[in-house]
Every structure is written in C-alpha cells, then in structure tokens.
Amino acid sequence: MPSRLYLTTQRPLGRTYTTLFLALAxxxxxxxxxxxxxxxxxxxxxxxxxxxPSSPAPSASTTATAANAQAPNTPTDAAQPPTLATxxxxxxxxxxxxxxxxxxxxxxxLQASSADGSMNPLxxxxxxxxxxxxxxxxxxxxxxxxRYTNPELPAELxxxxxxxxxxxxxxxxxDTMTLAYAYPADTVIQGQQAHxxxxxxxxxxxxxxxxxxxxxxxxxxxxxxxxxxxxxxxxWKQGDAQGARQLWQLALSKSSWTPLTREARHRLxxxxxxxxxxxxxxxxxxxYAQLGNHALxxxxxxxxxxxxxxxxxxxxxxxxxxxxTEKVVRGLVKQGVELLLGPIFHLEAATAARMAVTxxxxxxxxxxxxxxxxxDPASQSGRQHPRWIYLNxxxxxxxxxxxxxxxxxxxxxxRIAFLAxxxxxxxxxxxxxxxxxxxxxxxxxxxxxxxxxxxxFSPWLKKMVHVDPDTVAQRLRRSSRYRSLDPADPPAxxxxxxxxxxxxxxxxxxxxxxxxxxxxxxxxxxxxxxxxTVSLLGMPLWNSPELLAEGTDYLQGAVFTDLPADxxxxxxxxxxxxxxQDSSTLSMLAYDSVVTxxxxxxxxxxxxxxxxxxxxxxxxGEGFAGITGPLRYMPDGRSVRSYPYYQVGNGKIIPVVLDExx
Length: 662
Fold this sequence. Notes:
The chain is an alpha/beta fold. The strands form 6 sheets. A 5-stranded parallel β-sheet has the order 6-5-7-8-9, sandwiched between helices.
C-alpha cells in the first residue's frame, strides 16, 4: 500500500527526488552533519538509553474520505493538486468533532506517494540526519512531557515530529539548507502536518525563532510564514507592537496555507464580535489581597498578550472565605460565565470545585491538591462523566517523580534515603518519590521527618548513618567481632569514635528549603556522606540565592529540578514591564490558565471547529505552550509540566544537559 505524503507540491514527484539528491550533493552531506557541533561540554554527561518510539494504534479520530476540494483564498491563488484523503485533529473520544473536522477543507491535503510505496523522500533525509548524530547529541530538553503533539499521530507524522523537534532545537544553517532544498520552491506544508508544524514552532523561544528565521532562504518559504507568525506573537508579548506587525505582515505575504494566512489577518485586524466569558475567583480584599492581585495581574497580562482572542473577564472577590466563595460562584454562573478560574487556597478551592460540579461549569483551580480533583465524578471508577475540575499548579508530586526518574534512570542510583520536613509538602514529595523509585526498580529506605523549622539535623542523620547508640548497639550485637560467650559481660561499646558511621544508601532525597539544604550538606559530610559517592537530590525550593549564600563546597554536584530558567526569566521581564514589580508563582499560574483558553480558541479558529467543542479539547493530548514550557491536563484533571534539572556548581547553578531525552 502506498504511504501518504504530507507535503503537497505543484511539481511531479520525480523532480522531487532529483531536487533532493542534488541538494544533498551540493551541501556535501549536510543532512548528516551533527547539529550541536562545537557546543561546550556539559557538566553532567551520563548517557540515557532511549527506547525506540512505538508505533501507535490508529487514532479513532482519523477518517479517510474521497475529496477534491482545495482551500480557497490563498495569497498566491496557486492551483493545488486534488485532495485524496482527510485527517482530523479531533479528540478520539469526540465522535461529533471527528465528523465535523472530516469535512474541513483546510485539513485535507494528504497525498498518495509513488506507486512503489516508497516513503516521502524528505522524511528519509530527515531520518538519516537524525540517526547519524543521535548518540552524540545533547538535548537540554530532558523531560518526557516536552511535547506539543497528539500521541495518536500516524507513523509518518511521528517521524516528522521527531526530526522537526530536533531541527528546531539544534539545527544550524546547513540543516536549514537541507530542509529548504529537499523540495521544490513552491512546496506547501498542508493539513495535519501543517498544524503539527505550527504547534511545534510556536513553543520555541523568541531567540531561537529569530535565529531560525534569519537562516531561511528567501526563495523557499517552506517554514518562513510559521516562524514569522510565532516570532510576531513573541514580539507583541515583549511590547514591540511595530515589530510584531511587520512579522505578521511577512507571514501573511509568504503563507500559502489558508489557516495560517487567516491567523495572520486576525493578528493584524482583531475581531472581537464574539466572546468567551471567564469567571475569576480570587481574594482581592482581606488578608490575602496581595496574592489575589498578583494573580489578577497575570490574567490581565495574558489578555493583553492575546488581543486577537475574544475573551471577556468577570472578576469575583472570594475574600479568602469559603461561604463568600460559594456565593461568588453562583453569581458568576448566573452572569453566564463558561469557565471558572481559581481559587488559590485549599478550602476555598474545594468549595468552588463542588459548586462547579453542581452547576456544571468547568473550573481550573490554582491549587495542586489531588483531593480537589477527586471531587469530580469523573474521578470515580466505573462512572462515565465529563470532567469539570482541572488543577493548574506547580505539582510537588510530579517534581518528586521526575527527580526519582533522574536518580534511578540517569545516575543509576539503587538505594535511596529520605530526609524531609514533617509537613504536607515534605510527606507528599517523599511519598511520590518513593512510589516512582520502587516502580523503576530501586530500593527505598524508611524516611526521616524533622520539624519544619529545624536547623540542626544531627539527631536524624545519626540514625540514617547508624551512629546513634541504639542503632549501633544493635549492629554490634549482630557482629561476631563483639559477641561475648559470657552473658555477664558488659554490652558492646557504643562510642561513635569506636565505630565508623556507615551509610547503606547511594542517594538521599531532600525536599527542603534552600537554607536547610545549605545547612544539611556539611552535616552530611561530617558523617562521610558526600557527592559524588552519594547523590544529593533536591526540589525547586532549592533554587534560591539562599542556597549559594555561604559557598557551595558540600553541595557541589547536587541536583534539583525547577522550571526552565530562560522561560521564567522571560516572564519576569515581561511582568515587570507591565506592572513594575516582580512576578510570583501565582501570577505565572493565572497567566497560563488564561493562555490555555486563548491558545485553544486560536487553534479551533485555525481548524474552523465549532465553539461548542472547546471543553472536550481542554485535555487534548498535545497540551499547550505555557509561559514556562509545555503544559497539559491529564485524564485525572491534574496538570503536567516540564521541569529541567539543575546542578549546583562552584558558586552557581548549572543546567543539566543529558545526552538523550528521557
């Protein structure tokens, strides 16, 4: 059976092969040139064995049908070859959406390949380029959630995803030439491949987008309009309105794909005739007013950054009170809001979540408590319900699981100890880490918990390294060296000087604050627990100037996870420009909550999907491009993000670069 082509061209396929081979010959084999040639060595260079991608089952949302309609109103008005098949981007569980999208002309541009069933020649070149330097490359993106794609894509699109992600993050000028000249100049990316290409490009940083755009040849605008549209969006968020409009105009002039052309026009002349109504639940007065206003400012900034998306905001003041929260939810629903955002605190959030289920309104809660998501009837086994409750928060349990994956799979640690504060945060983090480590085959020891404000950790460290009197006495009684034949003899010695401390673990997880991490490290070293023999593993709380306040001799080599530093800094700069103050985690979460909706509205507009389908797409597999990186909502309602790893160096924090993505 012939394979499908996702790039359509006006020229015969034979000329495509000729162009490809000539391009590769002229470029001297640049398709196999390492993308990261010349990069400085990374601080950590353990190799991670990557499993080959599995071929997914055919998506229930993919529908083939005979058609020959061509999307109208392209800027060049070029005649396109007849469409032979259509593929939807619908959620697999939404049959109505699949039928709707199956008739969409701008997602119908799959074309059969040559009669011998050969694969798309561009994909062959891409696969060769990727495979040739796979073992020697280094990817800063090291989290399995760093994806913007539908996991049920056809095999060729998964192949395009793999190569194109590699090109976007690491491709140089030679790689750009290989991609641009692999097809004739009038080649147009269409249909599902075009949607995938756009979503991968828009997730890149402004700096990377600018580099890639400058590399594109002017006579072959294969991906130029995508890069221009995405960079224009980034410039708008940075406050450069004139630069944004120039880039959007460039995208409009270069695009031959109708949906992208339409989006460029929407950016240049926004249409606000229809609005989606959002209801905001925040404490804007009372003891927590400062936190609420931070979140409100994040929401307002998101609305300003997406001016072409018609969103109407209704604000409700919860005053940090459960009873008031219930009244506010009822009032917002009466005003016709379609989606609720907030609240922040656990009891308020649980109250609002229960009301949202009762009134059948979706809610995105700014709190990570799993128990809130479990209020939703969709979380109960054996019952089929639409999901109403979603949690958008920086989840310590996910961060702990990611650290467990790093310890076991990257560093190869096999026996792990735990020292944590006796708090909800500490216990949740330890429980999640232990569960993941056990699943990955490691041995975990019993955790030790200390009072939250502790500065002296020796009572727990002595037990951990077996130097407290009771533990040492038990050990000595088991040792034949100290065993006496006379029961009347005195007990075995318990002086620490007579028995060296011994640590039966090769990693220790420390979900503690930065100041406590700085204090516990020298105390561990006193008992001969040091890196790299024993790995010290932390959490985002470590990423604070307090960690480096008095040197890092005992912390060097320790690893923790946190949000992407470059993305976080970019948002901080933008927030400071808008509000003349530093951002907070709440402002970031509130911003991302609105961005989720704005991106969904843009994507549905691009795909010409009916507004009534928006809720079914909120938990789509490909997720969204959040301010801190990829964001997606899982079936249980909880959000998942990418958390890169960082290493403590000599007086500085260094990103951990892995040889292969997890």
